[in-house]
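Study the following:
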Amino acid sequence: MERVVVGDRPLDEWPAYLVLFENWLRRALGAFEPDEDRQLVRRFATWHGLQQLRQREAREALTPDLTACPRHEINSAHRFLAWAA
């Protein structure tokens, strides 16, 4: 049986909560308007949220609680941009 490889790892070796966070991020960004805000939040999420979670995942298993803070920060950044507009 063949293994599905995503990036540099087989799919079954990807950390579940990191994959769930990335899926949530994709859905959340799709709902953010206007496009300029979406791009800013995407950059912030990639630079800060995803990087932080990937580094943490390298040291320990992620949990829902560990992904809650980056989700909150991303939603807060979007709300701030909407307020500032």
User: Anything to note?
Assistant: The longest helix spans residues 35-59. Residues 8 and 14 are 10 Å apart (CA to CA). The beta strands are 5-6, 9-10.
